[in-house]
Amino acid sequence: MSAVTQESPEAFRARVRSWLAGTEIPTVPADPDGRFAVLRRWQRTLFDGGWAGLAWSREAGGQALTHAHQLVFDEELVRARAPQPVGLIGLEVVGPSIDRYGTDRQRRELLPRLLSGDDIWCQGFSEPEAGSDLASLRTRAVVDGDDFVVSGQKIWTSWAHEAQWCALLVRTDPAVRKQAGISYLLVDMASPGITTRPIRQMTGDEEFCEVFLDEVRVPRGNLLGGLNDGWAIATHTLGSERSGANLRRRVELEVALDDAVAALRAHGGVGDRARAAVGRAHVAMRVLDAQTRQTAARLVAGVGPTPADSVDKLVLNDVEQTVFAEIAGLLGALRAVPGASPSGLRSGHWAHEHLYSRAASIYGGSAQVQRTIVAQRLLELPRG
């Protein structure tokens, strides 16, 4: 074991703080294109500093540390008010599945560029008729010589218009039960036949996209895992997303709440109404903190994605929506006024975060689906 992997979390925390203190933290612009460019450069800075893929194997281009080290890094990054890298879908969601199920060639060729941000990844799972019911997806892939020929449509595909690669779920055997006939392809987004169309959200952002695939040829060597084994791999991908997001968002929400309290205090706005709202948000945060301690313990022990990840997702949904609803509620009608700053709370920022938090119970698997998983796979309740 190398000296780096033996480093204690406490010593690692000191090293992270020192590096962040000596590194220029980028200012993230409001416009989407500028924001994307800045965050992509920031990911490269993190990669060059040795901070990308901390818990990944060295063979995959990572640092071979533990999830405890990754949690420490996330905490210090957020507390330094530094942004997250742009490629979180690759780093937290798709990358771990490629590392686990990929061939040597796939891992060697794809993962270093994913870590550095040279390649941005998107996740082609949901479809117009198969969002929460992912197993009902209809995008088809037919074997033709050395290629799959793919046709269909995906939706709610974050950053598809900026991505170089897509982790795509396709139906390769329509004759078997729906979970059994799915395969997982790694698709070059520059392939002929792919069209992306951004969707404007109520926040004003456009990172979600529709993706249209018209007889797109994908080399058979880009199949992740075995043919028709995509459902199990997708389960791993979604589990990685839920557990990773739980740990990271806990710190981000904690800092956001601290910032709100500091703004209220600085402007003398801590009246009874504000105290009650902050109190409710604080109680919610303590629930999330307790849940993430269990999540971190599972990850540090090497326990892979499990049905318990659905509990993580449900708790995070509720807490995220509670925190932003309570603080945004203090703005009253002024939340709709750009540039307003009642009690020191910036209306544009808090209104945006409140609106975006409404999606927390949908992305990564809807709350209804997570409750079904908990009922059936954790509580072993009968199927209705």
What does this structure look like?
- This protein has three domains: 9-116, Butyryl-Coa Dehydrogenase, subunit A, domain 1 (Orthogonal Bundle), CATH 1.10.540.10; 121-228, Butyryl-CoA Dehydrogenase, subunit A, domain 2; 232-378, Butyryl-CoA Dehydrogenase, subunit A, domain 3.
- 47% of the residues lie in helices and 13% in strands.
- Strand 2 and strand 3 (147-154) form a beta hairpin.
- Mean pLDDT is 89; it is low at 1-5.
- It has helices spanning 9-21, 32-48, 67-79, 88-101, 104-116, 230-266, 272-300, 308-329, 347-357, 367-378; strands spanning 121-124, 140-144, 147-154, 165-171, 182-188, 194-198, 209-219, 223-224.
- The chain contains ten helices and eight strands.
- It has a four-stranded mixed beta sheet with strand order 1-4-5-8. The protein has a four-stranded antiparallel beta sheet with strand order 2-3-7-6, with no helix packed on it.
- The radius of gyration is 21 Å and the shape is globular.
- By secondary structure, the protein is an alpha+beta fold.
- It comes from Pseudonocardia broussonetiae.
- Residues 228-379 form the Acyl-CoA dehydrogenase/oxidase C-terminal domain.
- GO terms for molecular function: flavin adenine dinucleotide binding; oxidoreductase activity, acting on the CH-CH group of donors.
- Residues 122-216 form the Acyl-CoA oxidase/dehydrogenase middle domain.
- This is Acyl-CoA dehydrogenase.
Overview in brief:
The protein has 384 residues and is an alpha+beta fold.
Which assembly state applies to the chains in this document? single chain
- State the order of secondary-structure elements, H for helix, E for strand: HHHHHEEEEEEEEHHHHH
Q: Count up the helices.
A: 10
Structural class: alpha+beta
Any idea of the CATH topology of the largest domain? Butyryl-CoA Dehydrogenase, subunit A, domain 3
Strand order of the largest sheet: 1-4-5-8
Q: What is the total number of structural domains? A: 3
Coarse morphology: globular
Look at the structure and give the mean pLDDT.
Answer: 89
Using only CA atoms, what is the Rg?
A: 21 Å
Count the E strands: 8
How much helix, percentage-wise, in residues? Answer: 40-55%
CATH class of the largest domain: Mainly Alpha
- CATH arch. level architecture of the largest domain: Up-down Bundle
Profile the largest sheet.
Answer: 4 strands, mixed
